[in-house]
Design goal:
alpha+beta, 5-stranded antiparallel sheet, globular, disordered N terminus
């Protein structure tokens, strides 16, 4: 009897323990973390870039060149040619910076970044240039093109003629803002603007030599709605924010030995098909350099290489 009672007690304790013990949680087998996406690599978007060049802005002496004649999609870097033609018109007295430009329906062939112009609204040439070169407003480019030559198509023909005059033999423009072709948006252009780093160097040097006032626009970093002098088509303040990270971000800035910031322009660009590009200029001890980086897979690659090339170029010409 004693043995039987002991056996029953042990069995009872085992059952009680089984009931009281919490169920063990199943092991969750989680998949390993996904690898970071590789940067896009195409003929027009590569790591670290499609092409790059650095030069003395005044003499044109080439300080660095790597695939500088390789074809790239400039995206919004296109707007430097748009600005050049408008500034040439102003200098020739065809119209003034204070002239009001009334937008036509052609402004609808654009998308963000934009100033939000509607057909019939107007802005001054000066405000449109600011929106074009600081916020990279695509509708501002079209409004200026129509003002300059009566139609966007006529202005694009002039862009190509001027590029040929400057020796930009590998450059071809299809629009004034750098947007890619897009049938869904009913764009009137059917191809990508194309250029090279060497050609953009020629354009930048022309701007800096004969229209240094362009730096008034490209050196603007940020202006809030309370600070901005620019008014959009509805008359509202238009806040400004420059996309040039080497100009505005402390981690990317090029600092001269005297503590001053070197970079004061010019223009960045980005489209999916063509990656990130920049035409950059800066000074040290009265000497100016130009750096062009086209077709980087990422903006961080573009910015890092552009900043390094600018620091090296200024070190070479102003040491």
């Amino acid at each position: 009897m004693r043995r039987r009672a002991l056996a029953l007690l042990v069995a009872g304790l085992a059952v009680s323990a089984a009931v009281a013990a919490p169920a063990r949680k199943p092991v969750v087998r989680r998949p390993p973390p996904a690898a970071a996406a590789e940067p896009v690599q195409t003929a027009h978007r590569r790591s670290p870039y499609v092409g790059a060049i650095a030069a003395d802005a005044k003499t044109g002496e080439i300080l660095f060149s790597d695939n500088a004649d390789a074809e790239a999609y400039p995206a919004s870097v296109t707007k430097l040619m748009t600005a050049l033609l408008v500034l040439e018109d102003v200098k020739a007295g065809r119209y003034a910076l204070t002239t009001r430009v009334t937008a036509t329906p052609e402004v609808y062939a654009s998308e963000a970044s934009w100033v939000g112009l509607k057909a019939g609204q107007s802005m001054t040439v000066d405000d449109l240039l600011t929106a074009l070169l600081v916020n990279s407003a695509n509708d501002a480019a079209i409004a200026l093109a129509v003002q300059a030559n009566g139609s966007h198509t006529a202005f694009v023909a002039r862009m190509n003629a001027r590029a040929a005059q400057l020796g930009m033999a590998r450059t071809r423009y299809f629009n004034a803002n750098g947007l890619p072709p897009n049938a869904r948006r009913r764009y009137p252009w059917t191809d990508f603007n194309r250029t090279t780093a060497a050609d953009q160097l020629r354009l930048a040097r022309e701007l800096l030599k004969n229209h240094p006032g362009v730096l008034k626009y490209t050196s603007i970093k940020v202006k809030s709605a309370a600070e901005t002098p620019v008014r959009d088509g509805a008359g509202n303040p238009y806040p400004l924010k420059n996309h040039n990270n080497v100009l505005v971000k402390d981690a990317r800035k090029v600092i001269n030995p005297d503590g001053s910031e070197a970079v004061d322009g010019l223009k960045t660009g980005y489209i999916d098909a063509g990656g990130s590009s920049v035409v950059l200029t800066g000074t040290r001890k009265g000497r100016r350099a130009v750096v062009v980086v086209l077709g980087s897979s990422t903006s961080s690659e573009r910015d890092a290489h552009a900043a390094r090339l600018m620091a090296d170029a200024l070190g070479a010409i102003a040491w």
